[in-house]
Amino acid sequence: MRHMPTLGEIMTAFPVHVDEAMPLANAAELMEEHDCHHLPVMSGHKVIGLLSSEDIKLALQPGHQASELTELTAGDMCHQQIKEVDLHTRLDVVLEGMAELGINAVLVLKQDRLAGILTSQDACRGFASWLKKEYLPNDDPSIA
Q1: For residue range 17-43, what is the model confidence (pLDDT) as tens digits?
Q2: Which end of the chain is more exposed for a tag (fewer CB within 10 A), N or C?
Q3: What is the pTM of this model?
């Protein structure tokens, strides 16, 4: 019997996250250090937003001086209207929802606590893995 990958198999578990008071410059360094494009923003144990590399680029646009990055915090620039899903939500439902909403990341919660993040990159990696298992069962790249 074929197996649909689960959200837990595809998502990034226990993602790097930041406190809402972290200076934006430090959050940008953390993203670069961990090669990620999204950081959940927390207030204690509660997720309050999602900071993306695009949010940081926005802060660097004309009108914002580079010195102001130290004055801005992750909480100032994060998106506070974020999509959250339960860990046990079917993967196909989550992916369809992301496509319909035009978003490239959702936060995954388990009992209202941050358990992971699913990004479009995670989805692409998961789909590539599924294609290989489905169509290249012997890891033979010549089979098509």
Answers
A1: 999 999 999 999 999 999 999 999 999
A2: N
A3: 0.85
Nearest partner of 30 among 51, 59, 1, 3, judged by Cα: 51
For 97, what's the count of Cα atoms within 13 Å in the CB-facing half-sphere?
A: 15
All domains in the chain, ordered by first residue: 14-135 (3.10.580.10)
Q: Which residue has the tokens 């999602």?
A: 50
Nearest to 13 by CA among 95, 109, 130, 128: 109
**pLDDT at residue number 31:** 96
Rounded to an integer, what distance in angstroms lies between the CA atom of residue 37 and that of residue 31?
6
Which pair of tokens denotes residue 75?
């909480």
The gap between the terminal CA atoms of the chain, to the nearest Å, is 22
